[in-house]
Amino acid sequence: MSREPVRPTRPLLWLTVFFALGIAAERVCPLSLPSAFIIGFPALLLLCLAFLCSKSRERSRASVPVSLVLFLALGFALARVAAPLVPCPPGLERVLDRPHTLFIADIASPPDFFPDKIRLTLRLRSALLDDENVPLDAGVLLSVARTGVERAAWVPGDRVLARLTLRRFHNFNNPGGYDYVMRQAERGIHARAGSPDDRFLVRLAPGNGLPGCSVFRAVRSTVDRFRQESLFWLRKHFDPDTAAFYAALLLGYQQLISADWKEDLNRVGITHLLSISGMHLGLVSMFTFWICRKFIRRLCPAALHRLSDKQLALWPALAAALLYAFLAGFGVPPIWRSLLMLTLGLWASFCYRHADSLTILAATALIILVIDPAVLWQVSFQLTYACMVALFVIYPRLQRCRLAAIHPVFGGDRMAGKITRPFEEAFHVSVAVNILVLPLTVFYFQGFSLAGFIANIILVPLVGFLVLPSGLLGLGLLAFNESLAALLLQFGAWWVTLAHHLIRWFSDLSWAYFHVGPFSLLGMAACYLALFVLLSPWHRKRKGAALCALALFMAADSAVAHWRTAEDQRDHLLVDFIDVGQGTSTLVRFPDGAAMLVDGGGFFDDSYDIGRAVVAPFLWRSGIRRLDYVVLSHDHPDHRNGLRFVMQRFEVGCLWTGALACRPGDRESIETIAALRGIPVRLTHEIPGECAIGRCRVKLLHPSQKYLETEWNGDINNASLVLKIDYGETGVILPGDIGQSVERVIFGTGTAWGNVVLGSPHHGSDRSNSPFMVERLKPRAVVVSCGADNRFGFPSPAVLETYRKHGVAVYRTDRHGAVHAVSDGTRWEFSTFMGSSGGSSLSGGY
C-alpha cells in the first residue's frame, strides 16, 4: 500500500504566510515587470497545480510546493495591481492648490472628533471649474474647526457641496522617516483641506445608488448620528478626561484624549484598552449569547426541536456585535478584523465544527490581505495578529504555571482562587502578549513599557469587567431612559477615575518606560527566531547551540555597524539639517565624536510633537545616544518645542539657551526639564565667546552683552544665538532667525569667513538674507530650513534670486529633505535625502 503524500498541517496557515511574503516581496523588491507577466505567471502556476492534482498520487506530492509558490506569486501580483497612485491621481493635479474651488463630494466615513476640530473624509465626485463639471474620484481629508455648538451635523453618506482649497500631503523627508504620503495614498486619500467652520459645506440630495443602498445609508446614518449624540452627552455630563476615556472605550473616538493622558497610557503600556477590538466585541456577543440562551429555553422551548439553543443564540450574538461595531465606527480596521474573526468562529460553532484558532486567524488575515494588500504594512495589523498568535500559542503554555500548584488554597473551588483567577489570567495574557509584541513595539516605537507587565494585571480586569460592561449597558439605555443610563455610566465613571489614578501612578514610576533607540529589522528577526527556538520541541543542547550561534551573529553584526559608524565620522565634521517642516533643527557631529543639536523644530500650535516623531528617531538612527550640547537659538516654538522630548529622553551634557531668562514656573520649558534632570544650563551671557570641541573651534558671533543692553530692539529673532563652527579651512554658520540689521552687525567686519556653509537666516525670509551678507560671506552653499506650502511664503523668491546671482548652491529641506554636509577640513561634500547631490532648487507628514 502506497504511502499518502506528506502535507503540511493547517494548510491555510502556510498559504496565508506565503501570500503575505509575496506582498512583502513586491514592496521590498519592486521589480519592473510587464502586466502580462504579473497576471500570466500566477495563471500558469494555477494550471500546473490543477494538472498535478488531477494525476497520480506521486505527482500530487508536487502540488504542495506549487501551491505555496502560487500564493507567493498571487500576493506579489495583487500587491502590484493594488499599488496606490503616488502622489495623486492624474485628474486631481488640475485642482490642487486652486483657491476656493467648488466640489461635490460624499462623506466617506464617520467624522473623527478632535479637541479643536472635526476631521471628515470626503470622496470627491466632481469639481466645478470655469462652468465645467469635471468628474473626480479621489479622497480628501477635510479639517473643520469646532464651534461652540455641538450637534451631529454630518454622517457617512451625506453628499455635500464644498468650497475648498486642496493641498498636497508632505512627508518629513529624513532617513528612516515615516512615509505619510504613501500611508494616505493606501487609504485612497491624496489631498487635504481646511475650513474655519462648516458654513462652507452645503448638504445636497444623495446620489442614486444600487437598490437597497438607500436603506443601508439610512440605517448607517441613524447609528452614526446616535453615536455622535452619545459623545456630546458624555462631554456634557462628565469631566473632560472621563468623557474622553468613555468616548474612546465605547464609541471609538480616540483623538479626544489629552496629550498628557496619551503619554501616561503609552508609558504604562495599556493603549490597547482604548482600542475597540476583539475584547469589546467578544464581551458584547457573549453577553447577548447568554441572555438569548436563557430567553429561548424559558420562553420558546418549541424552537429547540430543530436547532439547539446554542445555534439559535449565535445569530443574535453576532447581530449585537455587528451593531456595536457600527456604533463604534465600523471603518476602524481593528473593529472589522475582530468582527470577521468572530463571524468565522461563530459560523464554525453553528456548524458543530471545532474552530481551529490558527486556521481562523489565517483565514481572516487572508481575506483582509486579498481585500487590501497594503494593510500588511500597518502597525495595527501586525500588532493585532501578533497578539492573537501569542494568545493561541504562548498563553496555553503559561497555563502550567498556576497559583493552585503553589498552594491548594488557590484551587478552583476556593474563595481565594475565585478572587485571584481574573488577575492570574490577566497576568498570563499580559506576559504572553508582551513576549511576542515586544520586538515589534521596540522596532516601531523605539521603546517598551516595563510597567505594562504589572499594570495590565490590574487594569485589564478593572476596565474589562467593570468599566466596559456598565458603559455599554448605559450607552444602550441612553436611547430609551436617560436617567437609568446616567446611573450606569456614573457607576462606570467612578472606576474610570480609579483607573486614571492608577495609570498616573504607574506612569510616574522612573522605570515605567524605556526608550532604547533604533531596532533594526535584522534584530527583530533575530528575536523572533530566538523565540521560535525556545518554543520548538528541540533538545536543550540543540536549543543552546542555536541560541549561541544567533547571539554570536548579532554581536558580530553590531560590532561591524559600530565600526562603520566610527569610520564615517573619523576626521570629518558632519552637519545634518533635519527636515522638521516649518522650523529648524541641525545636528553637528564633531571629529572627536561629540554631538551638538542646535534647535529642535516644532509646530506653532504644538499640535504635533516634532521631537518625538522626527528629531529623536533621526538621532537614534544616526547612532546618537548622548548629546554633549543642546542649543536653543531663541525662544520661539518652531525652534524650541521639538527639544522637550529630546531633553527628556537623551543624555545631555549641557544646554545653551538663547532664552533671555529661565521660566521656572513652566513645567514644559526646556530649562525646567534641564533642572529636573540635573543638566547644566547656560544663558546667553554665560556662553563662552569661543571654545574648542576636539579639533573644531566654536564661536558665539551674536548676541554680545553690549548689543543686548544698548542696541537690541526687543525682537526675539534678533537676539538669536549665532554660532560659527570652524574645522580646518571650512566652517558652518548657524544664525537662527536674525534680521538684516543684525547681519550687518555680525558680518560688517573685514574677517575672512573662509569656505563656509550657511544656514539661511529665518528660513529664507526677505527680512533676512541681505545681499550685503551674501556678498561678505560668499558661502559655499546655503541650506534653507522651511516647510512645504508654509503660510509665510518662505523662502522668498527675492532671496533665492540673490543667492542665484552670487552663484551660491541652494538646498531646501522642503524640496530636498534632510541635507547632509561633510567636511574633511578642506572642502565640503553634500548629499540629500531626496537624492539630489546638486544645489539647485528642485521641485513627513503634514
TrEMBL record:
Keywords associated with the record: Cell membrane, Membrane, Transmembrane, Transmembrane helix
Domain DUF4131: residue ranges: 33-193
Top-level taxonomy: Bacteria, Pseudomonadati, Thermodesulfobacteriota, Syntrophobacteria, Syntrophobacterales
Pfam family, one: Lactamase_B
Span of domain ComEC/Rec2-related protein: 249-540
Keyword rRNA-binding belongs to the record: no
Name of the protein in its database record: DNA internalization-related competence protein ComEC/Rec2
Domain Metallo-beta-lactamase: residue ranges: 579-683
GO process annotations (BP): establishment of competence for transformation
Membrane topology value: Multi-pass membrane protein
Keyword Coiled coil: no
InterPro entries named in the record: ComA-like_MBL (IPR035681), ComEC_N (IPR004477), Competence_ComEC/Rec2 (IPR004797), Competence_DNA_uptake (IPR052159), DUF4131 (IPR025405), Metallo-B-lactamas (IPR001279), RibonucZ/Hydroxyglut_hydro (IPR036866)
Cellular location(s): Cell membrane
Organism: Syntrophobacter fumaroxidans (strain DSM 10017 / MPOB)
Transmembrane regions: 35-54, 66-86, 273-292, 312-329, 382-398, 426-447, 453-480, 487-506, 512-535
Any single GO CC term annotated in Swiss-Prot or TrEMBL for this entry: plasma membrane
Major location (coarse): membrane
